[in-house]
Amino acid sequence: MRVLHVYSGNLFGGIESILLAMARHGAGAIDSDFALCFDGRLAQELRQAGGRVHMLPETRASRPLTVRRSREALGSLLRRERFDRVICHAAWSHAIFAGRAREADVPLVFWSHDVMTGRPWTERWARRTPPDLAICASDFTAASVRAVFADVPTATIYAPVEPAAPLEDGDRRRVRRELGTEDDSVVIVQASRSDPWKGHAILVDALGQLRDVPGWTWWQIGGAQRAGEATFLRALSRAADLAGIADRVRFAGERRDVPRLLSAADIHCQANTRPEPFGIAFVEALAAGLPVVTSAMGGALEIVDASCGILVDAGDSTALAGELRGLIGDRARRASLASAAPARARALCDPRRQIQRLGDVLAAMAAATVAMRA
After folding, report:
1. How far apart are CA 63 and CA 176, in angstroms?
2. Which of 86, 114, 118, 292 is exposed most, by the fewest CB atoms within 10 A?
3. CA-CA distance, 110 to 98, in Å (whole number)?
4. How far apart are CA 318 and CA 109, in angstroms?
């Protein structure tokens, strides 16, 4: 089954991780090609993983000529090469490119990676071309798809997440030295996009309440991919200073070795103020053997249970501080949660199993579509 994944490609986060997993683990279940509008980190890493990348012209919705050119390029690709499915990832890609897949008479799939409301322009535009199937990042996300595609069948498929490679002898110590951290420090890590709703400010407030607790360090992993994110990170640094914890915070910036850093930490904490559509970062942390502490809402409720982490009320920095205080001081509890974490990650997001499930869903969808059109 040959599938063309259509996406923008100008940023790097959860969707990009899914596409990379498709390139690395899809052989046998799905033969994946990738059509991208921006030749950045994603395109480079897909090529390194052996993926076939088709570059479309750079596309900006605010510039109609670029939209026209990229649509024409996709149409030409679909006429030139045979694909069994086209998957548009996220509303932006579907809004711009779904019509070309329809014109080529290729079964069309929309992959919903976000909570949908039907209000943003991308979703209103996407609504014009209903897909044959909507794949959803979580059951939580699936419930929101009706706001845009009321009559489209859905299937929930958790993201394929690659297992963390074990650290080599001495690597934990080397990572900690790179980040100016003592070997015996309890490292709390957040690895996420630099968006305010990811809860960095709530975590800083909670950690400020732990100034009296010795022996912990916070690693903040993630750089600025947009201008506003640079401003946010500067404000976050000032907040850490005001909270009296600046000397215990390490801003690691954008990294390509996140699994290595996670494996050298002790606790993953992300205090979301809005629900995650799924939460790949949580699964990646579990795969690295970290207990996860996060807000009790959204996709996290499908990932984190009492065996591997702790859920707290969103926005409650005092409750968050209390849970972190307990984990920092209780090595046995940390070890118990950590020991269950990798198995939880595999059960939810084993790459080969999830990609095989995707292949089965796409095959069933195509058969139903052909029968319906006949």
Report:
1. 46
2. 118
3. 9
4. 43
**pLDDT < 50 stretches in the chain:** 368, 370-374
Distance from C-alpha of 62 to C-alpha of 42, rounded to nearest angstrom? 23
Question: Taking CA 176 as the corner, what is the angle to CA 197 and CA 308, rounded to the nearest 5 degrees?
Answer: 55
Tokens of 357: 């499930």
- Whole-model pTM: value is 0.90
pLDDT in tens, 62-105: 999 999 999 999 999 999 999 999 999 999 999 999 999 999 99
Which residue bears the tokens 């890493």?
Answer: 45
d(CA 222, CA 193): 6
Question: What is the distance between the alpha carbons of residues 351 and 162, in angstroms, rounded to a whole number?
Answer: 6
The one-letter amino acid at 107? P
Strand order in the sheet with 186-191: 249-253, 216-221, 186-191, 267-270, 292-295, 309-312
Question: CA-to-CA distance for 17 and 159, rounded, in angstroms?
Answer: 9
Grouping H, G, I as helix, E, B as strand and the rest as coil, residue 35 is strand
Strands (E) in 197-262, as ranges, are 216-221, 249-253
Give yes or no for a contact between 145 and 116, defined as CB atoms under 8 angstroms apart. yes
Q: What angle do CA 271, 276, 278 make, to 5 degrees?
A: 125
CB atoms within 10 A of CB 368: 14
> Quick check: helix, strand or coil at residue 309?
strand
